[in-house]
Structure formats: structure tokens, C-alpha cells
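Extended Data, panel c. Modelled sequence:
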Amino acid sequence: MVDESQDSLNKVRILYVEDDFINQIVVKNLLKSLGFEDIVVADDAQKTLKLLENSKNNFDIILMDIGLPDIDGISLTEKIRQSNFKLNSIPIIAISGNDDIVNQQKSYLAGMNGFLSKPVEKEQLLLTIKDVINKKIVL
């Protein structure tokens, strides 16, 4: 469970999967302004899987861009969900410029726990992360 305190937020370890450099900067700055300090960025599926497979990396949540260049975020989420138990249980929030209902349903069916539309809004980002970490599905 995540409480409302700043101390709680800065202990959340986030893996942000995004190939676009500008989006990486924008969302990382949003996260830092919300009190999140431990943010790791991966720009493709291969780097993401390597980070997740490293037993030293214990992420609390994954923010997943849907439109990755090598494999889309929905397929990558399916791979993560089919992997070992540790990876299977990490909450994943989709981030997409295409927020139609079909895209949201595909995200949910792949095993994602939440959905955010680009451009990401600060308040919605915080609310979605808190809700997903507290085990509420947010689509």
C-alpha cells in the first residue's frame, strides 16, 4: 500500500519504458516533481527484459509506452506476464497517444493494470500510480 506521504513516494521504484527521448524527459520530470526519486528508463523491449531479469532490480511499477520500435508495449507486457512469478506480479500502466477503447481493452487483456493517455497529466499520473500500487485496476 502507498500512503500519501512524500517519504512513501520516494521509495517507489519505477521502470519507465519509452523510446522517445522528449517523452522520457517530460515524464521523468513529472515523476520527480511528484516525489518519485527512483526512476529507471529503458528505451526498448530488450533493455526492459534485461533490467527485469536482473535479480537486483526490484521494481514496484512499470510505466509502459505502447508504441515501442522493436516490439509494442502490449506484446512486451504479455511476455512479462508469461515470465516468472516475480515479473508476473509487477503492476504495469500503459501510456499511449492512442486512447481509444480498443487500445485500452488490448492493454487490459495483455495484463496491464492501468492506462494513461499522452500527453500525461501530472495529477492523473499520480492518481493512477497510487491506485495501481494499491491494487485497483484503472482503465
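Residues 21-33 form the longest helix (13 residues). This feature is highlighted in the accompanying rendering.
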